Amino acid sequence: MRRRWVIIALAVLAVVVGITSNLADARLLPYGPVAATGAMGEDVSAFPYTVHVNHAQAAASIVEAGRFEPPPPTTTDGVWVVVNLSYATEDEVRIPGSSALVLRAEDGRQFPVSNRSPARPWLAGADIWVRGDLAFEVAPDTLDGLMLVFDPELKIYGPMPMQYAQIPLDLDPDDVVEVLDLTETETLPVGKR
Amino acid sequence: MEAGAITARTVVTVLLATWPRRLLLGGLLLIPVIVGALGGFGSTEPRSFEASAGEDIDLGPLTMRPLAFFVSDETRRSGLDYVDGAQAWLGIVVEVENTTESPISLTFAGPASDAIEPQLPQGVLLSTLSVAAEAVRVADGTSGTAALPGVRTQVALLWPVSDAAAVPEVLDAVMTESLWMFGPMSNEERWMSLGDTWHVALPRTELPATMFEPEDDL
Q1: Does domain B48-211 have CATH number 2.60.40?
Q2: Do B139 and A77 touch (CB under 8 A)?
Q3: What one-character-per-residue DSSP string does A118-154 give?
Q4: Which H helix or E strand runs over B69?
Q5: What is the residue extent of each domain of chain B?
Q6: Could you report the predicted ipTM of this complex, rounded to two decimals?
Q7: Which pLDDT tens digit goes with each residue over A114-136?
Q8: pLDDT tier, B129 (very low <50, low <70, confident <90, very high otherwise)
Q9: Which of B159, B174, B175 is nearest to B92 (CA)?
Q10: Hey, which of A99, B3, B111, B171 has its CA 20 to 30 A from B182?
Q11: Which of B5, B142, B151 sits opposite A78 (nearest CB)?
């Protein structure tokens, strides 16, 4: 009789230990991404970068920068959102990966830097701030509540809290300009963003 | 045998000891019979439908509306030169909308892999993958490779073909639905083209004027 209870108790113990370790793994260990929510005009940390959004504007078409003769405007089936931002690193010269910067809508839809615009993330150095424009194509109904997400996706192995920045863009859904000129990237003097 | 051991015989005896237990066990055994009587769990075999050009088709991650096809070598000329033995592009004009939360590449294996496949004689189609080699936005001839969530775009999907004359006047294409499923090989959930299929007959059209690329005269 006692032997039967021992077997049942061991089976219950095995299940409880499994559930507890799963819960601890999912909720208590300090790895996985951690969001740092900032605002426009503020330095926001997304290690190893610090990012600063100056302004954002919605537009029906954009004109790429840096040509002697400007090309015709590029249109979109959605809406262009041009984000003017600067960033620097905290350690060495780096360039963010192509999917590091995305716009995220309130409902979770994500829009990468458009491959129909020549603007791509650029190199930045340790406390060397470089400013430029990035153009995103988004669905028109997402302008309200759109957020810039900068996730450096640094590959550090082991339990480590990874940081990413999210910055609400405060766009007015009714303020969509017809044509917007993109500016070229520019390395900034000390103290400028 | 030791007294108090749990054997198959004692388990059966315990389960069938009283009437409530016997009824419970009988009920459990009846579940498959009841489910079967109500029509079962639905078929696992994908179904096949006929569709017509200009019809919206929900493929899971994408909604696609196939419109027409063209054969031309007067667009993306340098891309055509890269493919051995390619004579022309087969282009299928579709309207596509991504219904997921993340962008989908129309020219890379993934959610769009079997979204639309032209049916041509063996050896005419020169791509190894079913997915298109290039995608061009019809409105202005710029890149249309990325289908963005909630942004409906008309694009021409391009495949290199070895013989322009081998493409019939009416092109058959097969569209396959993708299902969000757990892949034991990748150990994660992803889109897999295992769902229903639609057969569509596409009318021939001209190369959209916006995509025309003049020949380089060097």
Answers
A1: yes
A2: yes
A3: S-----BBBTB-EEEEEEEEE-GGG-TT-EEEE----
A4: strand B62-72
A5: 8-37, 48-211
A6: 0.79
A7: 999 888 999 999 999 999 999 99
A8: confident
A9: B159
A10: A99
A11: B151
